Amino acid sequence: MGAPCFHAVCSFKLPEPHSHGVTEQEESVQKRFADILASRKPQDWPPAPPVDVDAIVRLVGADMVGTFPIVDMKKVDMTEYNRGRPLPDRRELLLYRLLAPLPADGTDGWDANAHVLVHAYEADRNGLLMMGNHVGFGDKFGRAASLSYSFVVHTGAEEAVMRFEEQDDHGGGWWVQEASFPRVSNGRGTIVSKIWSPRGLHVATEYQDGLCKGWAEKIKL
User: Fold this and answer.
1) What element of type H or E holds 188?
2) Measured distance CA(27)–CA(34) in Å, rounded
3) Per residue in 118-166, pLDDT tens?
4) Is the full-model pTM beyond 0.90?
5) Is the separation of the CB atoms in 133 and 78 below 8 Å?
6) CB contact at 8 A, 193 and 177
7) Taking Cα atoms as reference points, which of 201, 204, 203 lies closest to residue 192?
């Protein structure tokens, strides 16, 4: 085995039913952004940039496919939606699905906890960099580093399973990461990313605090 590329401290609990049948969530990201998401097929959106910093994306091109493992990721163009909105009201949408089936666990064919870890790994990509672009650091990014990261699953683990056999060329099998940036100040920023299943279930939420600093001058490339 090679060097680890991702570490996580996890707490696990046994599955349980809804208390008195109660389950509530906001309207799904697929409904709230239906017009934008329907404007093209999921696979036709450009790839999520390997390094999502405005200056670097302009240099290497928006169609560059990186080597991010496990999932194929696409970035939805939210430029018009975000234009003129204050930072906390802006959104970034990333679509993703498995590059290949995950190994079975030897029982029901799905290792649900492995799928949860994939979602947690995916949600940690480029968040601080996207936030920096929104606050004007895209051409003068100084420093970005995660200080704390929490990933909370709101459902049973089986709801996090990404079923490879449902993936097709008609939009099947795509999960959605809905990223927002509620606070930036004092060289730090906060990211909240909701993970939505293809059928519109809010499965998990990522909460991240990190450094977000810009240089006094633009980056020279």
Assistant:
1) strand 188-196
2) 11
3) 999 999 888 899 999 999 888 888 888 888 899 999 998 889 999 888 8
4) no
5) no
6) yes
7) 204
